[in-house]
Amino acid sequence: MSPEEFRKQGKQMIDWIADYYENVEKYPVLSQVKPGEIIGQLPTNAPKESESMDQIMSDVNSIIMPGITHWQSPNFFAYFPSNSSGPSVLGDLLSSGLGVQGMIWATSPACTELETRVLDWLAGMLQLPGQFKSTSTGGAVIQDTASSAALSAILAAREKKTNYKTNDSGNSGKLVAYVSSQTHSSLEKAIKIAGIGKNNLRLIGVDENLAMRPDLLEIVIQADLKAGLSPFFVCATVGTTSTNAMDPLTEIGRICRKYELWLHIDAAMSGTAAISPKYRHFLNGVELADSFSFNPHKWMFTNFDCNCFYVADRSVLIKTLSILPEYLKNQASESGAVIDYRDWHIQLGRRFRSLKLWFVIRHYGVSGLRYHISEHVRIAQEFAEWVISSDDFELVAPAPLNLVCFAHKNGNDFNRKLLETINANGKMYFTHTEVNGQYVLRMCIGQTNTKEEHVRLAWETIQETAKELSS
Ligand SMILES: Cc1ncc(COP(=O)(O)O)c(C=O)c1O
Questions:
Q1: Residue at 89 is within a domain
Q2: Structural domains counted in the chain
């Protein structure tokens, strides 16, 4: 494709995306296709000859679009959001255009240095303690996902506990990790990948708010020590996936210090809230953590993928993950004056993701981000109030931020039917969870363009559908 042709097609593509954003509410939010419907329309073999962009885009419109679930619809209330914004998409496009692979400083100094600067900005915006900044003992790196960040934290914790011996001779089978019963499944996956073994992952019980109980954590640690095992890692969650429960960071952190355990904080969605001083208190206790991670690709208007992973002591992470083959040796690295982010995560190669974060932060400004986040929380709190005042529905868990867990009083089967009926009509999309055997509806408010009117309409739809199903 010549630069001239690219210019022409690129302009059309931007128009296509802008039209999509303008019309996104016209699509059913949850894709209504059946399994196999998309693949059945795609040729079995790749085209032998070149096809035009017009032909390709025609298939996008007729084959691909019906198979899209519209995460960027303001009527998307499912899971946790994976929101986006114009500046983010443009930053990502620029990153693709530059095609940089920033595995080491020398392979694009700007890719490394912008990332370092933007992550230090974010540390300031979240009021993270000084040790998490690159100017101190720690620092941060952009990873693809919170899952990869958790795996990196577990590996660093494993090596720190075993004096870097596990990297050489493998795991003794004695290391034990602790998470709450509500912790995201990515922690179990990471524990398996890190060779710790699922049987050495303890699921700590939770209180009535579904937050980890520090007293139970300490009892289990003591029992493991008595059994000759080696406790090494705790993950506390700020905003669990199921109900947005907040683990008590300070108490958990004190226990980790007492028993010399690595504390990782997973704040995948709710970490973003701390940009607003009103919600910063949810991170109180982060000063006791060894690592902290959150996903701007969930709630910070930055399109997937973008996880920010902070460590208090970068030397442990780097010592755990660095390997230096001859072909990567270079003067800049040897001078010790630069960061080589390849030593901060699992993979070698890396995209220029900090561009989109930089674009987003500069476009909105800190005050703009605070405004939009606070609005989402305000609307969610209003929704929670509507639920509380309703005769037919009840709140099932505390709603500290932008997730409301609720249920109709007619029981599990009714709630399941209610959810399926609403999602099938395409006006909105929301999902469920289970709390103590109860089937629970979840409304998570975090899409960039969701306004009060969308949530009001959603509440009307929920109430009306419930009435129809009851009668
Ligand atoms: C609390 C929490 N942690 C981790 C994850 C995993 O996120 P990712 O897809 O970035 O790995 C999620 C995903 O929703 C989550 O809610």
A1: no
A2: 1
406-427 pLDDT per residue, tens: 999 999 999 999 999 999 999 9
CATH number (domain holding residue 318): 3.40.640.10
Does ligand 1 have an atom closer than 6 angstroms to the CB of 146?
yes
Interatomic CA distance for residues 296 and 172, integer angstroms: 36
* 269 within ligand 1 shell (Cβ under 6 A): yes
Centroid of ligand 1 to alpha carbon of 338 (angstroms): 31
Q: Which domain holds residue 246?
A: 100-351
Cα(204) to centroid of ligand 1, in Å? 19
pTM of the model: 0.97
Beta carbon of 265 within 6 Å of any ligand 1 atom: no
Classify residue 205: in a domain, yes or no.
yes
- Overall average pLDDT of the 344-360 stretch: 97
CA 9–ligand 1 middle distance (angstroms):
35
The rounded Å distance from CA 358 to ligand 1 centre is 22
Does residue 361 fall inside a structural domain?
no
Which residue, by CA, sits nearest to atom 16 of ligand 1? 241
Q: Which of 175, 203, 206, 174 has its CA nearest to residue 188?
A: 203
Nearest 5°: phi and psi at 105?
A: -55, -45
pLDDT for 350 equals 97
The answer as to whether 1 is a domain residue is no
Terminal CA-to-CA distance of the chain, rounded, Å? 60
pLDDT digits 0-9 by tens, 321-339: 998 888 888 888 888 899 9
